[in-house]
Structures are given as C-alpha cells and as structure tokens.
Specification:
The strands form four sheets. Strands 1, 2, 3, 4, 7, 12, 14 and 16 form an eight-stranded antiparallel β-sheet that branches. Strands 5-13-8-11 form a four-stranded antiparallel β-sheet, with no helix packed on it. The chain has a two-stranded antiparallel ribbon with strand order 6-15. The longest helix is centred in the first third of the chain and has 16 residues. By secondary structure, the chain is an alpha+beta fold. The radius of gyration is 18 Å and the shape is globular. The protein has one domain: q2cbj1_9rhob like domain (Jelly Rolls).
C-alpha cells in the first residue's frame, strides 16, 4: 500500500483496489460457479451449497437451480476456485495487512439471486473467528459481476473497526438466511457507504468493520468471490470454540505449532 491507502485503511477499516483481476481470471471463476450452480459438476468434498431461505421454505419457486442458491462456502478442495485464494497478486496485498505468515481461514462465493429477500444485516466478521488479534485478520471480496445499489452491493460503516465486537442476533425479519446475524441495535446505520464495484474490483476489510448488503432488486445476480486470511501467529481465545472442520492452510511464511495453522 502507498501511504494514502495505508492511512485510508487505518481510518476507515476498508480499502477498495480497482481492477485487481482481469477479464480472463474473472471468466474462469464464473464458469466454474456456473457449473456448480447448474448442477453440471458435483461439488467437491467439504463444499457447502446453501439454498436461499425463501426457497427452502417453499415461499419462492425459482425457475432455475441457480436462482435457488444464495451462496457456496468452503471451496478449499476446488482447484479452479482455490486459484483465487492463492493468487500471488492477492496474497501480495494480504501480506500488507496480516504480515508475512499468511493462512487461509475461510472461503465463500456469493450468488445473491433475484426474487428473494437475500439481505444481510450489518455485522462484524470477527463474530465467526475465535482467534486474535483482530488486526491480523483480513477479508477479501472481489466482484465477479457488476455490483450496484440496485442488485445489493456491499455497504460498510467507515471507522467502526475501531470499536468492539458487538452482540449479534438474527434480525426481526420474516426471512433470514442461516448464519446471517446482525449487530444488535445497529439497524440501517446512517453513515453506511455503498461500495459499487466493477468485475475484478476487490475490497479488503477489517473483521470488526460493520458491513452488510441489501436486496437484489435487479433481474440478474450479484456474484462475488471472497476469502478470509489470518496471520499464522494468531492464537485461539482461551474460551473460544474451534473453527469447525475448516482447514487452515498456510500459504506463505512459517507456521507456529501453537498458532492457528493445522489446528482443527
């Protein structure tokens, strides 16, 4: 990062890098996503394919399999999608935030289909990660297609990364996807900023930054690929739960045996 970018991240808790990936790279990941959404390829071991809650409850009957799926998590065993996580250009940026010992801790594809609610209330990702320090954890989120306010682009609340981890719960909405918790008492924050992005644009953000997204009111999808990384020197909280069955994969540097890498 240059000094201006570094200062901006310190102040706001996020940094948008325009055009980090090119059209050929984006096309490869979109093609693989289309195979998984269409059922043309079986998901690899460990991959979680999540239907939207309105589809699961029978409230909406989508006219295609792709419109039924809200997101895909844990693609560590998919060689095409994993190429995003270990991409040298992306890891060069990640090192700026977490240091030289980089581990992958979570992967996700967001499909965000039309014709369902699909909102994700403002929340903090640190809720999902029982290790610290927070300053050595970073999210990457890359637009695969155009992301606009109409199709439910990300919204962030600048500066909230300097606060504490808030209490989270399901919002009082009729339809809430599993795991889409929201920070209690935050609501639609008046200071939120909508991040409209073109394919290949990538946002890096702090795990305490409040962020979320609205409904997709367009006729198409709002697709993105995302990963979380942490320093291999991070430590589990003394009373923290383990990170499910997700693997910690060391991508650069060294792993401390007492750190997060290799612990299941």
């Amino acid at each position: 990062m240059n000094p201006e970018q570094r200062d901006g991240y310190a102040k706001n808790g996020y940094l948008v890098v325009r055009g980090l990936f090119g059209g050929e790279e984006i096309a490869r990941w979109l093609e693989r996503l289309a195979e998984l959404l269409g059922g043309d390829a079986p998901p690899p071991p460990g991959m979680l394919v999540m239907r939207d809650v309105m589809v699961a409850k029978g409230v909406v009957a989508p006219d295609s399999r792709a419109k039924a799926i809200a997101k895909i998590q844990d693609f560590e065993n998919d060689a095409v999608l994993w190429s995003y996580v270990e991409h040298a250009r992306l890891l060069d940026c990640v090192e700026e935030f977490v240091g030289p010992d980089v581990a992958s801790i979570h992967t996700m594809l967001i499909n965000k289909p039309p014709d369902v609610d699909g909102r994700h209330p403002l929340h903090q990702d640190l809720l999902y990660f029982p290790f610290r320090p927070a300053e050595r954890i970073i999210a990457t989120w890359t637009a695969l297609e155009r992301c606009t306010r109409e199709n439910g682009c990300l919204a962030v609340v600048p500066g909230t990364q300097r606060g504490e981890l808030l209490r989270h719960a399901n919002p009082d909405w009729e339809f809430v996807n599993g795991g889409y918790f929201g920070a209690v008492g935050v609501g639609a924050h008046p200071d939120r900023v909508h991040l409209e992005m073109e394919p290949g644009d990538t946002v890096f953000f702090h795990p305490l930054l409040l962020h979320g997204s609205g409904r997709n009111r367009s006729a198409g999808f709002r697709r993105a690929i995302s990963a979380h990384y942490a320093s291999a020197a991070c430590r589990y909280l003394a009373d923290g739960h383990r990170h499910g069955s997700r693997p910690f994969r060391l991508l650069r540097g060294n792993a401390d045996r007492e750190g997060i890498v290799g612990v299941r």
